[in-house]
Design a protein that fits this description.
By secondary structure, this protein is α/β, with parallel strands linked by helices. Helices cover 34% and strands 15% of the residues. 35% of the residues are buried.
Amino acid sequence: MAMKHARFDVTSKLRGESLVRRGLLEKYEGKPQIRLMPDLNVVKIGGHGIIDYGKEILLPLLDEIGELSRQNPILVVTGGGVRVRHVLDVGLDLGMPTGILAELAGKISEQNAIMVSTLLSRWKGMRIHTSDLLELPMLMGLGVLPVTHGTPPYGLYEQPPEIGAIPPNRTDTGAFLAAEVLGARNLILVKNVDGLYTDNPFTNPEAKLIPDITASELLAMNLEDLVLERRVVELLRYAKNIHEVKIVNGHKPGSIRNTLAGEKPGTVIRAR
């Protein structure tokens, strides 16, 4: 006969819940969340599309961001680029688990954050860690232009991908998650193309620019390749604060300035 023992419990509306019951989850759907920084603009600089091009592309872009930061609260997020691709290539060849690959990739985007924050020093650029996001209201109150790396801190706990072994949550996803938890106004992904295309515009001259599309529509197209991580598009459908992702061409001066001024970016991906 099984012995009955009393649980040490605390009075709570969730007492006794498994936290996976569908009815419970639906009860909290649509409940407003605090937006910590509703005026914030999260600007993610691609490693492969921007930083790897060096000073000819990166320096003018950082000048633009630095000047914009005088009047607009901005969080700069860095990608990894070619060095991430190299370490993933080696790691995949050696049979590294996805979580190890995520750890390795994160080190590269951190290196880029250090370089970018140094280049932004005359605008009070400061490298911060992902664990410092809650300090942003205070830091921006001091005039700091924060720079963090984009790799989300899943690390060894990275989710297994649906296909293959490459970590599904990379720097675009990290920028999205930072913007979501902070309740930002804008999430701008800065790439080396005008926006989202039906195919790779560098290899297919017939590729068409997609100026506006919903996340569900984009996923239904099941394109072979995307200019942003597929995980961002998947998460956008369920986001509470971020309802669109904007893609601009960082090789064209003024792209970020124009977007912040309200002009239409190259592509807008909407939650619905």
